From TrEMBL:
Source species of the chain: Arachis hypogaea
Family under the similarity heading: Belongs to the glycosyl hydrolase 16 family.
Classification of source organism: Eukaryota, Viridiplantae, Streptophyta, Embryophyta, Tracheophyta
Subcellular location: Secreted, Cell wall; Secreted, Extracellular space, Apoplast
Entry EC no(s): 2.4.1.207
Job of this protein: Catalyzes xyloglucan endohydrolysis (XEH) and/or endotransglycosylation (XET). Cleaves and religates xyloglucan polymers, an essential constituent of the primary cell wall, and thereby participates in cell wall construction of growing tissues.
Coiled-coil residue spans: none
Segment forming the signal sequence: 1-22
Keywords: Apoplast, Cell wall, Cell wall biogenesis/degradation, Disulfide bond, Glycosidase, Hydrolase, Secreted, Signal, Transferase
InterPro entries: Beta-glucanase-like, Beta-glucanase/XTH, ConA-like_dom_sf, XET_C, XTH
Primary localization class, coarse: secreted
SUPFAM superfamilies, per database record: Concanavalin A-like lectins/glucanases (SSF49899)
Protein name in the entry: Xyloglucan endotransglucosylase/hydrolase
GO biological process: cell wall biogenesis; cell wall organization; xyloglucan metabolic process
Amino acid sequence: MGGCHVCFLFLCLSSAMVVVSGSSSMNNNLPIIAFEDGYTPLFGDNNLIIHNDGKLVHLTLDQRTGSGFVSHELYLHGYFSAKIKLPADYTAGVVVAFYMSNGDMFKKNHDEIDFEFLGNIRGRDWRMQTNFYGNGSTNTGREERYDLWFDPSQDFHQYSILWTDSKIIFYVDNVPIREVKRTESMGGDFPSKPMTLYATIWDASDWATDGGKYRVNYKYAPYVAEFSNFVMHGCGVDPIDENVAMCNNAQNSKANIIPKHKIKMENFRNNHMTYSYCYDRARYQVPPPECVISLQEAEALRKLDPATFGDGRRHRGGGKRRHHQSKGRKAEDASF
């Protein structure tokens, strides 16, 4: 199955830690599973199509509905990854999401770790957003947005989440792009409860593209997002047996980004990050406790948008996004 059982926790989680301690190519040594071994359809009926014996899945958005899938198991920590190819042409209002959440179980105090891909009008690129919540802390938005160094609609690219008891690392094509270190002052804002893994495509016309200025235009439908190379390498939790403590005891939290990958991450953030809540002076007079301020990042964002990241008079930041029980149910060479 997709998750590691308790008796294999040490082996599985130690392997997951190797991902960030050694060469990025080690990510490719983790087992790739078939869709049916790790996931099940969530919504969308015929808008979810499985190809190539479970090696490829198409999620479609049309006027009738979006679509999505969900993991069989709950996980507490691990490494989770998929290769994704996004729809092309006019995609304003469309959101493709690859994320972890327990919102269906914890209505008022859910945890969440997100990759969200925000569509755009013709001639403008997709934007990528990362975010996380802990214990229902949705009032403290922790969004970051980025331009990508490739066209994500032309080929498959790998998007990965590493989640431990002390940090979260987001990767694109094995390059770390964001690291969140848990601090004591964060309290329950750091995701700490078991979550399931989701992928969805849905109509987010109200907020996704320029704050809702551009909406989904269904004359360009169907919009198809393609998923492959599924990796689910974590501690599977049985909510009946409540083996969460065993997951925590087995967890090796010494996940470190090696120096050459740290440089790549810094270069990516200095050149491709277009929004970070940590620098939004209109939103937070004092940055949230987990923020580590970089003078280079601050200067790059200030040049990009002086009002938001300079004197703080106006906020154009991460954009409001609605939470859902399951997101969407309603409806080349790097330059660094």
